[in-house]
Amino acid sequence: MDAPRYPTKPKPGDRVAIVSPSAGLPGLFPHVYELGLRRLREEFGLEPVEYPTTRVMGADPRDRARDLTAAFADPRITAVLATVGGDDLITVTPHLDDDVLRANPKPYFGYSDNTNVLNHLYRLGIVAYHGGSVLVHLGRPGAPHPLTFDSLRAALFTSGWYDLTPAPAWGDRPNPWTEPETLEYEPEMLPGEGWRWQGPERVVRGRTWGGCLEILHWLMATDRVPTVAELDGSVLLFETSQEMPSAQEVFRIVRNMGERGLLAAFPAIVVGRPKAWNFDRPLSVPERSAWGTAQREAIIHALTPYNPDAVVVFDVDLGHTDPQLIIPYGGEILVDAVDRRIAVRY
C-alpha cells in the first residue's frame, strides 16, 4: 500500500458536504445542527451542502453510502464533514464506490463511529481527519471552544505543521441536546493537568492510524485493518467513547491488538483523554479521575508484553472530550518525548 496522500484543502467561500453516514441525529436535534451550520458559515466562511440522508435516522446503509460517494464525486465540493457518530457505519463502508473515492480525494472530517470511514480512506491511500463534528463541536453550547476551532481552522485551510496544545481546562459532561435552552451556556469544565508521558525520551515521527478503540475492535473482528507491515513505524492513536468501556474491556482490546501483532508496529502511541461521564453514568469528579487512572494502568498493563519501549502519551484532547484537537489520519505526526511536544502536519 502506498503512503496516504493529502487531498487539496478547501478555501473560504467553498462548498463543503454535510453528511450523516452513521446516525441521522440532525433530524432529532435540529437546533444543535443549525447552530453548527451557522458557525460553519460565519466562523469558517464555508457553504454547507446537505445530502438526502443527513437528517434521516435509520437510513438504509446503501443510501448513506450513496450520499458519501456522491459528495466525493461532486467537483463543486471541496471537503466532507460528518455531522456526528453512531454505531453502524461498519455496515456502510462496504457499499462505497472506491473507484470514485480514489479518483476524487477530499478532506474528510469525523470521529467516533467515523473511524470506519477514516480507516477505509487510509486503505485507499487518502489522508483524512480525526475530529470535527458538526453537532458536537461546531454546535457546542455557549460558544465555540477556542482550541477546537483553532485546530479545525488549521486542518481545514493549511498544510503545514501545527503544535497541539494541552487544554488548560477540559470537560466530558455535555449539556443535554433535548433541552434547547442549554445551548445558551457552556458545558462544565475541569482544570487541565497536562499530558502524561510514559516510556523512553526519544523523538518519533511517523504516520498516524487508529481512532475510537471500540470501533478498532470491530474492524479487527471483520479483518478490515491494515497489515502489520503496512503499519510498521506508524504512530497509533486511540480514545474511548461515551459508552465508557471498563478498564478491563480496554485492557482486553489493547491485548487483542498485541496478539494480532499490531502493537509491536508502533514506536509511539497517543491516547485520548477518556470520557468518564455520561447521562446514564453521572460519575463524580473524583470518580472520573479514578476512571482515568484505571484506564491508563490497563493500557500500560496490556502494552508492556508486546511493546515495552513505546513512547506513550496519555490525556491528549483528541476524542470524545472537550476540547477536541484535529489529528490527520494517515498524515504525519511528531511525538517528541524529549521536549514533551506533539505536532501534526495538516
UniProtKB/TrEMBL annotation:
Gene3D superfamilies: Class I glutamine amidotransferase-like, LD-carboxypeptidase A C-terminal domain-like. Residues 16-131 form the LD-carboxypeptidase N-terminal domain. Residues 205-333 form the LD-carboxypeptidase C-terminal domain. Keywords: Carboxypeptidase, Hydrolase, Protease. The keyword Hydrolase applies. InterPro entries: Carboxypeptidase_A_C_sf, Class_I_gatase-like, LdcA_N, Peptidase_S66_N, Peptidase_S66C, S66_fam. GO terms for molecular function: carboxypeptidase activity. The keyword ATP-binding does not apply. Belongs to the peptidase S66 family. This is Muramoyltetrapeptide carboxypeptidase LdcA (Peptidoglycan recycling). It comes from Micromonospora coriariae. The lineage of its organism: Bacteria, Bacillati, Actinomycetota, Actinomycetes, Micromonosporales.
